Structures are given as structure tokens and as C-alpha cells.
């Protein structure tokens, strides 16, 4: 039997609940939700997506305030033979674990002031993180350890009964017998996980208009230099407790006791098998065995004894670890700064925006109140790398008619160069790529409708994915409207929906248990947005 394992890893709220890379949220406004192709915009919300384009705002103050509501489900459908003994679904080796991630109020603020060729700007928002996530039934990586421990103990008991059934006819003739043991018919447990993960970003910078309306084609060029300070705030809480087994008489006993019961009888069975193996050469003829058969049976018994003894030792060790509740209560904080460069070029009705964000070196430090997981990475004061990868963003916007605009963009997140917890960046095939397209139509003088599409391609591999943090390739659709209240005020409303592609991870040794299994990861996501802009 494999060594019993329990790895708490990280009680992570999991991956981003929003659009973007592993640790980046690109949807910072209602404008983005109604049309994600925002990389060449020159509205005030470009303070995040295209800060160099702020050069074309016009003199004065410009303000935008946005709120979003995002909700996501994360589902893991696990196939693992020992799950068939879960008392809530006896006989079913498939088990579904569902978590709900919510971010009910996601604010963002953009402020810019332009005078002549210079524009100073600020953006504040939740630029990374997954909001809040709750798994009321835990995760398969945790329950599989309980399921395996129960299955291993039951296997030892069945192994004892197998020996008893085989040799009791012989022993009864000598006035002895091995009593049959009673195996459990299922297990129960209480598991729970809750996490919160936010990355707050404060970005400030300066935009400079190099030239405007140059030549017959009315060319313009501007640059941006700025930086974003990222502040991470995470909190994780969870437990696994009350692991019990159900007996045929409807009684319950703690799983550790059941494991010790199996281990003790496994040791007895091993001793019996060794004793029988030593006696068979002389006892064989009296029970109808040829010398060759007696020798073969003795060898089999010695092998069986070694297996039973090894299983008993592992069960005793596992029972000790399961003899206490496993729980975690940990907060994490950290911060880092990323320089940002931008460039915007316009010629006639075409505008092109570019932005490069440098890698944010970010380490998060534990403030741990409770940690009985046995995982040293959650010890109080431990630092874990959690870099926000660098990003190259390029977009274009073109007015095909006075009232119709089309736009497209491309994001590349340099994930392979970022330092991640556990060195997970080594298990990425390629950097994340994102393509966006969209269109806007001024259906009335005061009303604009828009829609857009986004495709996100992660470079994940099975070794990168885990129950605690998994990413699925996706495409998203957004639509909405902007209404001009007066010459200074605009309001926006939008909706954003994401469809994810399932990711299947197969393991020859499921979570280190030595038994094959697989997980199918899937997600759903939707977000609503409201925004207001004010120029004065």
C-alpha cells in the first residue's frame, strides 16, 4: 500500500474570476464587458487599456467610475474507484465537486487631467485574483486520500478473510480456525474550503502628445510612461474532519480506528502466513499437497505476509495522521511594482495602441492562525512567489463610417518567465494568447450599442493543473450600450459571458495513491457592468 498522503498545497480561491491571464484581470470597465477589444480606445477607460491614447481626450478633467458583478462556477468531475465507497453515492466511482466563486462588487476608478500636450492619469481596480470561492464538499485531492485509506483498510481485511477461507478447512481439522472479519461498507467525512484572493492595482503615469494632425493624413503620436503598484490580499480557510466508516450493523466508527483494526489484523495475518509457510514442507502431505505444491504455496504465503505487513505499517502511519482534524486558517499579503510603457499612433480614421507591462515580482507572506495540514508552505511567516507576468498588448480601431467603428486586439502574457508557487511555470507549454474583436454603432445621436468577442488560449499541461487552481481555454461574448446623458456625462451598461473548454487530467497514480483516476475540469462565468464617465 502506498504511503498515505495529505497535501494541503494551497487553499487558493483559484484562478481569475475575470478575463485575462493566470493572475491578470483585463476587464476593468463596463466598456470592456460590452466590447473587449479596447486596446486602441482613446476614452477615459483607456487609462488602463491604452494609456497613451489619453492624449486625444481634450483639455480638462476626465473621470470614470465602474462597478461589475461577476459569478463563476468551477466543477471537477472525478473518476476514481475508491469513491464508490462514499456513503452518499455507494457504487458510483464518479464524484462531482462544485465550487462557487463570486465577486459581487468590483469597483474601478479612472481619473485623467490633460493640459496641452501632457496628460496625467490614474487607474485603480482589482487587477488580479479570483474573488471568493467556496467548495462546500471539499475537493477530490482531499477526499481521495480518505477514500484510499478506507479502500486500503478494507483490502487488508479482505486479504485476512481470503487467508481464513483458504486455510480454515485445514485448521478446523486440527481444532482451530481464523475468525472472519467484518469490512466496512462505506465512509463519510466533512470537508469544506473557502478562499478569497484579490490583487488591487493602483496605476499612475504621464502621457505626452508628440504631434497631432500632422500632414494631410492627420497623423498623431503619443507615448506613456507609468507604473502600477499591486497589492495582494488572500485568505484561506478549510478543514477535513469527522472521517468515519459505516459498518453493516449501521454503526459508525472513526476511520483511524478502522485503519488500526485492519492494521492489527493485517499483522496477525502476516504472522499466520509466515507460520503456515514454515510448516507446509512437513504439513503438506497430510493435507494432500505434493512437495512441489507445498513449496509453491509456502512461497506464495511469504509474499502475501510481506504485503500484509507493509500494508499494516502504512495503515498505522496513516491512522496517526488522520487521528486529528486537518484545518487551515491563513491570510497572505504582498506587494510589487510594475513599470508600464505605452505608444499610440493615429492616421486618419485608424488608431493603433500598444502597451507593455513589465513583470511584477511579488511575494506573498503568510499570517497563519491555524495550520494542522502538515504542509510547511503554510507556516507563519513563509514567503511564496506569486509574480504577475509581463504583458504585451497591441490593438487597432478603425472608423469605417462616421457612426460605425470596428476594432481588434492581441494580448500576450509572458507566463513562462514569471515565478510561480512550486515552480509551476515550468509546466506551461506556451504563453497565454488572447485575441479580441468588436464593433460599435452610434444607433442614435445619444445612444451607442456595441458587441465583441474574445478568445483565450492558455498553455496549460496536466502537470500545471490542480484542483486548487485550474485554467480552461475559453471564448467570451460581450454586448451593451452607452447613453450620452449630456455633453459631459455618459452612462454604460453591459453583459459578458464566457464559455470554457473542459480540460481532462488523467493520472496513473491518482493524487499519489497508486490507483488510476482522472479529473475533468470545467467552468462557467458571467459578469454585469455599469459605468459612468464625466468630463469637466
TrEMBL record:
SUPFAM superfamilies on file: Porins
GO molecular function: long-chain fatty acid transporting porin activity
InterPro entries: OMPP1/FadL/TodX
Keywords, comma-separated and alphabetical: Cell outer membrane, Membrane, Signal, Transmembrane, Transmembrane beta strand
Listed name of the protein: Uncharacterized protein
Keyword Transmembrane included in the entry's annotation: yes
Membrane topology summary: Multi-pass membrane protein
Keyword Protein biosynthesis: no
Location within or outside the cell: Cell outer membrane
The organism of origin for this protein: gut metagenome
One CC-aspect GO term: cell outer membrane
Main location per the UniProt record: membrane
Amino acid at each position: 500500500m502506498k504511503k498515505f498522503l495529505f497535501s494541503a498545497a494551497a487553499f487558493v480561491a483559484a484562478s481569475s474570476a475575470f478575463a485575462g491571464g493566470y493572475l491578470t484581470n483585463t476587464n476593468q470597465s463596463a466598456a470592456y464587458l460590452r466590447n473587449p477589444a479596447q486596446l486602441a480606445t482613446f476614452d477615459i477607460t483607456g487609462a488602463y487599456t491604452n494609456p497613451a491614447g489619453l492624449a486625444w481626450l481634450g483639455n480638462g478633467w476626465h473621470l470614470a467610475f465602474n462597478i461589475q458583478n461577476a459569478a463563476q462556477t468551477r466543477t471537477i468531475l472525478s473518476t476514481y474507484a475508491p469513491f464508490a465507497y462514499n456513503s452518499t453515492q455507494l457504487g458510483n466511482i464518479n464524484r462531482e465537486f462544485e465550487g462557487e466563486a463570486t465577486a459581487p462588487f468590483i469597483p474601478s476608478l479612472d481619473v485623467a487631467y490633460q493640459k496641452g500636450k501632457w496628460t496625467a492619469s490614474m487607474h485603480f481596480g482589482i487587477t488580479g485574483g479570483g474573488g471568493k470561492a467556496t467548495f462546500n464538499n471539499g475537493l477530490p485531492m482531499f477526499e481521495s486520500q480518505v477514500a484510499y485509506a478506507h479502500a486500503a483498510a478494507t483490502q487488508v481485511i479482505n486479504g485476512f478473510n481470503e487467508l481464513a477461507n483458504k486455510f480454515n478447512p485445514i485448521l478446523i481439522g486440527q481444532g482451530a480456525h481464523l475468525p472472519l472479519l467484518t469490512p466496512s461498507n462505506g465512509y463519510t467525512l466533512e470537508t469544506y474550503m473557502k478562499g478569497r484572493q484579490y490583487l488591487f492595482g493602483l496605476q499612475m503615469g504621464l502621457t505626452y502628445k508628440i504631434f497631432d494632425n500632422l500632414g494631410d493624413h492627420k497623423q498623431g503620436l503619443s507615448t506613456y510612461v507609468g507604473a502600477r503598484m499591486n497589492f495582494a490580499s488572500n485568505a484561506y480557510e478549510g478543514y477535513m474532519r469527522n472521517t468515519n466508516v459505516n459498518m453493516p450493523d449501521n454503526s459508525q466508527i472513526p476511520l483511524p480506528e478502522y485503519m488500526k483494526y485492519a492494521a492489527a489484523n493485517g499483522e496477525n495475518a502476516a504472522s499466520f502466513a509466515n507460520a503456515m509457510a514454515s510448516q507446509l514442507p512437513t504439513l503438506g502431505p497430510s493435507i494432500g499437497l505434493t512437495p512441489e505444491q507445498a513449496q509453491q504455496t509456502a512461497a506464495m504465503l511469504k509474499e502475501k505476509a510481506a504485503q500484509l505487513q507493509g500494508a499494516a505499517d502504512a495503515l498505522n502511519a496513516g491512522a496517526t495522521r488522520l487521528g486529528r482534524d486537518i484545518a487551515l486558517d491563513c491570510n497572505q499579503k504582498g506587494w510589487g511594482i510594475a513599470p508600464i510603457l505605452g505608444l499610440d499612433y493615429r492616421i486618419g480614421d485608424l488608431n493603433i495602441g500598444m502597451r507593455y507591462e513589465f513583470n511584477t515580482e511579488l511575494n506573498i507572506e503568510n499570517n497563519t492562525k491555524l495550520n494542522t495540514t502538515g504542509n510547511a508552505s503554510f507556516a507563519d511567516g513563509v514567503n511564496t512567489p506569486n509574480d504577475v507576468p509581463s504583458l504585451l498588448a497591441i490593438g487597432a480601431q478603425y472608423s469605417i463610417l462616421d457612426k460605425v467603428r470596428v476594432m481588434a486586439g492581441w494580448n500576450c502574457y509572458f507566463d513562462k518567465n514569471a515565478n510561480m508557487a512550486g515552480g509551476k511555470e515550468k509546466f506551461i507549454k506556451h504563453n497565454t494568447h488572447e485575441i479580441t474583436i468588436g464593433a460599435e454603432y452610434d444607433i442614435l445621436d445619444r445612444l451607442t450599442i456595441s458587441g465583441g468577442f474574445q478568445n483565450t488560449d492558455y498553455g496549460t499541461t496536466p502537470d500545471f493543473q490542480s484542483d486548487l487552481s485550474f485554467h480552461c481555454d475559453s471564448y467570451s461574448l460581450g454586448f451593451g450600450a452607452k447613453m450620452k446623458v449630456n455633453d459631459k456625462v455618459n452612462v454604460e451598461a453591459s453583459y459578458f459571458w464566457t464559455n470554457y473548454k473542459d480540460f481532462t487530467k488523467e493520472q496513473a497514480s491518482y493524487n499519489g495513491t497508486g490507483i488510476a483516476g482522472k479529473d475533468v475540469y470545467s467552468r462557467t462565468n458571467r459578469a454585469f457592468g455599469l459605468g459612468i464617465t464625466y468630463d469637466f
